[in-house]
Design brief:
- Helices cover 69% and strands 2% of the residues.
- The protein is an all-alpha fold.
- A two-stranded antiparallel ribbon has the order 1-2.
Length: 260
């Protein structure tokens, strides 16, 4: 007898199949596929740490340079990677939408799971290596560190869904995302903290929720650093509003992904 499958079961099986396909395409295309997922943030931090060392700085805001940069770089990488992957999630799998079992949200869910899992694994590997080198890597407030990461993921998902919708109208959206990534890193507090900026200039970065996420992550990670600017209320409000707008825009245009 043929068992009738529920919608949830069909989605689970579809997401699993898409996940195996994505992992093989992204990481299995060459032998170094998995290596680059770890090497990219390490290389970025190493270059910036070398720059600080050449300037005679071995700590920033009373935090070792490597840890200071990593606690800013990893949340930012989560944001940019997740947003970028979701922007092209539907277009990259458009041919598969011809199958009745595959809906437009399936590749989105697939990429969210892959990016979050990759972030967690890379985070653990890098900080385990630093612990082996003798650094104190355990956060002072783990729950707040996780909360900041969850809000960054919600923010990236909301923006990614909005950009994914825009991508169905204008194919050059991916290029626009690539252009704004570097300026975003500069103003998101990866290489500096709010305590290094004179108060009269805080307004230049205060509007940026990723800057708040970076500040709150460092505040939660190090008891020696107290952010003068990071706001949980502002970050949480931005994350929930943008996530809601992203879901709404995606739902309203769900049929366009199939017909366009």
């Amino acid at each position: 007898m043929i068992k009738n499958r529920t919608s949830l079961t069909i989605m689970r099986d579809t997401v699993h199949a898409l996940m195996m396909r994505e992992i093989k395409t992204r990481f299995g295309a060459n032998r170094l596929g998995y290596f680059w997922a770890i090497a990219e943030p390490i290389a970025s931090v190493s270059v910036m740490a070398l720059m600080f060392s050449l300037m005679g700085r071995h700590s920033v805001a009373n935090i070792p340079v490597a840890l200071f940069l990593l606690t800013g770089m990893l949340p930012f990488k989560l944001f940019t990677k997740l947003m970028t992957q979701l922007t092209s999630a539907v277009n990259a799998n458009k041919a598969l939408l011809a199958y009745r079992q595959v809906s437009a949200i399936d590749p989105v869910i697939t990429r969210i799971i892959i990016e979050l899992a990759t972030y967690l694994i890379v985070y653990c590997i890098i900080f385990s290596f630093l612990a082996w080198l003798g650094f104190k890597v355990l956060p002072d407030d783990l729950l707040k560190v996780l909360a900041a990461s969850v809000l960054v993921a919600l923010l990236a998902t909301g923006l990614g869904l909005m950009l994914c919708t825009a991508n169905s109208y204008w194919e050059d959206v991916n290029k626009l995302v690539g252009i704004i990534t570097l300026p975003m890193m500069i103003i998101s507090g990866v290489m500096f903290s709010a305590s290094m900026i004179p108060p009269q200039y805080w307004y230049l970065v205060d509007w940026n929720p990723i800057f708040h996420a970076t500040e709150l992550s460092r505040d939660a990670y190090f008891s020696s650093y107290v952010t003068p600017l990071g706001s949980w209320f502002y970050l949480g409000t931005c994350a929930l509003v943008i996530f809601s707008l992203g879901l709404t825009s995606f739902y309203v245009n769900r049929l366009r992904f199939i017909t366009a």
